Amino acid sequence: MPEATNMARSTRSVSITDSGQHKRPSDVGESARAAYTVPEAARLLGLSRGNAYALVRAGAIPAMRIGGRWIVPKRRFHTWLDQQLPAGAR
Known about the structure:
42% helix, two-stranded antiparallel ribbon, 4 helices
């Protein structure tokens, strides 16, 4: 039976590096991802998770809903954040 368990685990998607090693998406660095989760954006802003979700739903933090979850596109988030700073602080 252990083989069935291993087969279930091996169905996850993987990518192959130049050296031929396999990497799972969770092993790929955060910089490879195009979006933050709302809790990640909350940590970056120093907000509670609940406040971040409220701001996302209100449209104050740039985000989009895909399926049943919210994502915060990294470029839009950082552009928005830069625009929130006073002109002298940039």
